[in-house]
Amino acid sequence: MGWFSKIYTVVISFLGFIICHGCALSISLYDVECVSEHVLHDGDTVSGNFVVIDYDIFWNSDHPGIDFSVTSPGGSLVYSLKGTSGDKFQFKAALHGIYKFCFQNPASTPETVSFYIHVGHIPNEHDLAKDEHLDPVNVKIAELREALESIIIEQKYLKARDTRHRHTNESTRKRVVLYTILEYVLFAATSISQVVYIRRLFSKSFAYNRV
């Protein structure tokens, strides 16, 4: 019965990991937008990533990027990044409570931000002593769950960056096509104006010869 209980615990833990392993969302950023996340235990690891999907770095090299900051339940600054188009983050939550994740867009152009966050908890010796139903097997399960979660975070970050690169390539292709069309239009207009000018010049020369 003991082994069955342990196997049941492992299965339930992994099902819980598959069903709910983090929070992913997309934010339309015009000025300042904040997202709150509740950290249940002191010392939990908060990790995640964000990528500005619409950040067209090739055509807007002077774009200032966005600012990212994390504040603790007490209001102190825990983590911050300035002028970036995306990055990964990780920190230890010293206190449990509501943490606020804020994005600021200093540019006038709205941006779309892909944001993923995960709060990980691995039981320690204090938890084992306090909870008699918690054994080392659960601790190993939690460690394995967090290792898998780190892989998922990396995959989501790479996927978001790939989406941004596709948007940039598509924007580049459209601009190249537009510039090519404008170039041909200007070339045609220049050629037509030259033909008209030459015809008028010859018409005037012919009129002078007749006089």
UniProtKB/TrEMBL annotation:
Main subcellular location of this protein, as a coarse class: membrane
Cell location: Endomembrane system; Membrane
| Entry's transmembrane regions | 7-30, 176-198
Q: Which UniProt keywords apply?
A: Membrane, Signal, Transmembrane, Transmembrane helix
> Does Electron transport count among this protein's keywords?
no
Its membrane topology is listed as: Single-pass membrane protein; Single-pass type I membrane protein
Q: Name one GO cellular component term.
A: membrane
What InterPro entries does the entry give? Emp24-like, GOLD_dom, GOLD_dom_sf
Outline the extent of the GOLD domain: 32-119
Question: Family per UniProt?
Answer: Belongs to the EMP24/GP25L family.
Per its UniProt record, what PANTHER family does this chain match? Answer: TRANSMEMBRANE EMP24 DOMAIN-CONTAINING PROTEIN
Please report the name of this protein according to its UniProt entry. GOLD domain-containing protein
